[in-house]
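Rotation project, supervised by the postdoc (A.L.). Task for the rotation student: set up a whole-complex structure prediction and record inputs and outputs verbatim in this book. Inputs entered:
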Amino acid sequence: MVSDLKLDDGSRVGVMGGGPAGSFFSYFLLQIAQRMQLDLNVDIYEARDFSLAAPQGCNMCGGIISESLVQNLAAEGINLPSSVVQRGLDSYFLHMDVGSVRIETPLQEMRIAAVHRGCGPRGIKEELKVRGFDGYLLDLALAKGAKLIRKRVDGVGWENGRPWLKTPDGSKATYDLLAVAVGVNTSAMRLFEGLNLRYQPPRSTKTHIREFFLGRETIKKYLGSSMHVFLLNIPRLEFAALIPKGDYVTLCLLGHDIDKQLIESFIGSSEVKHCLPPNWEPPADFCHCAPKISIKGAVEPFADRMVFAGDCGVTRLYKDGIGAAYRTAKAAAITAVFEGIAAEDFRRHYWPVCQAVTSDNRIGELVFAAARQIQKRRFARRGMLRMVEKEQKEKGSRRRMSSVLWDTFTGSAPYQQVFLRTLHPAFISRLVWDIAVGNMPFGKTQEPGRMQ
Amino acid sequence: MSPGALGKLYHDGDIIVRQGEEGNCMYVIQRGEVEVLLKKGDKDVRVAVLGEGDFFGEMALFGREVRSATVRAKGEVTALTLEKKSFLRRVHEDPSLAFSILEKMSQRIRNLNAQLNKALGRRAALR
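Outputs recorded:
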């Protein structure tokens, strides 16, 4: 069925939100339209100034650009400059009470990018300010021809079948297509409640992020070019990571009801202390936030002349949210240019991409449930540690557990691929063997010491 | 290598890909320059210099032939490796991912045609 709703020369497109999803959508929409010699006018509404330090210029997240996204962007001709990448990561350390192990990227190269979303954490000195990832992407979209409207949207409605946006100064603009890319940490989602859409926003949970200043040399010495992931048996804590950046280290915590007590018991654990300078204590004042992340995708993130991309549509469970914003925003842009902008067009061509992410998230829930079981059982942690240690020592061997952990914690591959790898008989038999041997007195690995 | 650099660091004179060897990945230059060399008898003839944002080794993604040229680092170079298997999987999911590569390959064919025409013109003038 061919829809009548199409973008034509001179069509106006409004984009709510200039974070990664909004910028990717605008960039690809304009790129594809220009290839098709279609002249579009794209307005991006973004009140934040990404050249400011947090909280004014930050979209609150851990700031990891996954291996697969770094590669996809390179193939698209978007090479992240070293002014934006605060640290290239080539490995990660898995820390558990039974020991720590370093897992390297398959080709021992810097394949993951640690970035700041804004120009740096609250309180950053002027001379340490950096170029934030969100600002960089927004500049790419503007260079393609998008126009930035640095205003908040406080009203959305319909007029003659077309969506309009209103800003606090009373300006109102009507569009042929509205792309919503506002994320889940904003009250803007409420603007859509009275519009009789079938859209239902995603379900979310809270995370906790802290930024600590350590200085470039200290970070290099203690954390290096590795992300540090912790599987600790602390009640209510599901996952924790320390991400080294230029002068700061970002602490990300995921769990239930994260409170001061949980955070202090994590920071005070010997596994965390081993990664940081001796006698290091968190400063009295530091940049922190408790952003929400989507854990269940939106229902019907589209309507006639309207599409929701990124976190306010469908995103990946726990990992690689920016990668999901890239995928969904690009799919929405391709649909809008080639197929049309009716709800039916988005249902047929955009929704399958969202559904693929949603289906993969279901498998992701299984993967994380298994990780939780390992987290709770010391004997399983020992077996896993032994298996990874052996893989990392044996050059040229199939690194089955290492690749499973790598892709789970870095978000570099779909959860389905990760899960299928764990069903391989060689994976299962080796894990069972390493659990058995690893728990015998002679097979136990060394308890953790200070990281070198 | 600066902390924010992505990819792998190659030093001046390092051979990144060697003509005649099998390849299963392509490279995207993040910083620096490389020379593309073709073997002619005993000598290596420089046919191109590639810089930031350029890629090489892409023919390995689309065929099974061995590397058609040698690529050598000219000064310090950082390049990102894109493995054939994972990249092709992503291209099958989103074919437009290969568009930029196609654009550059088409530009290279155009440049080669121009060079060929120039060489043929010179030869005709000598007759």
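Student's summary: The radius of gyration of chain A is 23 Å.
Supervisor addendum: Chain A touches chain B through 36 residues (CB under 8 Å).
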